[in-house]
Amino acid sequence: MRSNDPDLAPTCFADAAEGCITCGDQGVPVRVLSADETTALAVCADASGATEQIATELVGPVAPGDVLLVHAKVALAHLDAEEAAL
Amino acid sequence: MRFVDEFRDAELGRALAAEILSAVEPGRHYKVMEVCGGHTHSIYKYGIDGLLPANVELVHGPGCPVCVIPMGRVDDGIAIAEQPGVLFTCFGDMLRVPGSHGTLLDAKARGADIRMVYSPLDALRIARANPDREVVFFAIGFETTAPSTALTLQRAKAEGLTNFSCMCNHVTIVPPVRALLESPDLRLDGFIGPGHVCTVVGARPFRFIPADYGRPVVISGFEPLDLLQSVQMILAQLADGRCEVENQYKRVVPDDGNLRALEAMADAFELRPHFEWRGLGFISQSALKLSERYADFDAELRFAVPGVRVADPKACQCGEVLKGVIKPWECKVFGTACTPERPIGTCMVSPEGACAAYYNYGRFAREREVV
Question: Model's pTM, two decimal places?
C-alpha cells in the first residue's frame, strides 16, 4: 500500500517485482487498527506495516485485530482463521 | 503476518512438491490452466513451475484485466482525457498500455491531466476537491475490482456529485473461460480457479466447467503453498476419476461469495451485449456497463468517444499467449522489441501479464536450463 495522496503515490509499474494490487485482480490481507462504523472506514495495516484507509461497507462491521482481504482500498472479505489452518 | 507467512513455508512446500511427484502418472502430460493473472505472477515469482514434475505444465490464462483491454478502448480513454477541463484517472498499469497512437502516459506528456490512482475512491476524492473539473475514472478489472467501482458510484450518487463519471471496462471471467473451453486449439486437464474473483462471486459460477466440460476446478489462493496444494488437488481429482469444483482457499472464499458486493454490482452495472477482448475477439455478455440508474455517471454518454475497433500490431502474439496456445518466450518479439520498459503488447505491461511475469522472473531459470 502507498501514500493516501495519489499525487504523491509512486507509480506502481516501478515495482513490477511485487505486482500491483489494483491493476491485477489480486487482494492483500490487512489487519484492522481502528474502525468507524458511521463512515464505514477503517484504518488498516498491511504486512509491511504501511497503513491505509479502507472502505468496509461490503464486509459489514469490523473490529481492531480483524484480518480483511482488501482490493483497491475496499475490503472484500474477512479472513477465517479456522479455515487457514494448513 | 498471519495468513501470509505460514503459506510460504519452504519445508511444507517441498513436502507438497513430493506429493505431486508421487501423484502423476509417468508418460501422461498434464496441462493445468491458471485463469488469474495474479496466479501467473505468483507462479513465476516463487518458482512454482520449477517445483513441478516436467510432465505437469502450467498454462497461463486470460485473467489479467490490463492484458485483455483492446487498443480501441485505450484510444477512447485518451480521447476523453484530452478533452478540455477533463481530469482523467486510472490505475498505474493502464497508463502504459499502447493504443493506436501511443499510451495514456504519452497523452499526459502532451499536456493531458492524467493521474494514477490506487482506488476509484481516490478518483472520487479528487472530484470532490476539484468541483470545476470533470473527473473521469477509467475502470478496469474483473469481479474483484468491479465492487469497488460500484461502491464509488453509489457514494457519488448519494453525494450528488455532478463532476464525476466512469468509463467502464469491467469484464467478467466466466465467458472467456467458456470460450477457451470451446477452442479446439487447447486441451486442458484442469483449472486453477481465480481466488479473489471467487471472494466476490463464490464458487458456484465455475460449476459449469466440471458439469459441461468434464474438467476439475480448484479455487486457489495466491501464496506458494496455496498454488502447490491446488495443483495437488487437481491431480488427485484426475487420479481418483473425480471432477468437481473444490475450494482450496476457504479462509477467504465462501461458497456464496460476497452478497453485499454482488448487490452493489447489480445496482451499478448491467451486462453489455458483447465486448471485445484482446486476442479473443468479441465475446457475448462478457463485460459490464453502467446501469440506467447510473447513466448520469457514464463517461461514454457524457463525452464523445471514437469507439473505433483497432487491430492489434501484427508482430504481437498476445492473443495466443492469453489463450495459452504459446508460451511468452515463443512470441517473436518477446524480450527483444517488446519489453516491460517498451511494451508492444499488453501482456508485457502489467506485472500480472504472462509475458511481464516471465520476463521478470522465469527467463533466468530458462537461461540456466539452456546453458
Answer: 0.86
